[in-house]
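Lay summary. Proteins are chains of building blocks that fold into shapes, and those shapes determine what they do. In this project we predict the shape from the chain. Here is one chain we studied, written as its sequence of building blocks.
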Amino acid sequence: MARAFTLITVRPGSEEKVIEVIRGIEGVKRVYRVCGPYDIIAEIETEELSALREIVENKIRKIPESRSSLTMIVLEG
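And here is the predicted shape, written in a compact code that computers can read:
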């Protein structure tokens, strides 16, 4: 099991649109709109690390309104 949190900044005013797109991505478990240096946090969970990478690189980061992202992979002890 692979799990990560992706923090995303988007163009001002596009937060709700981007949230709806991210919610439609398979593997995304939760999406939060937040205040601070990032606009959105997405919790992603997949069976394989490669699938998690696919979601971040080829889906979330390719959303036109997305400006930047930071992904933190969860390490379970």
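What the prediction tells us: Residues 2-73 form a domain with the Alpha-Beta Plaits fold (CATH 3.30.70.920).
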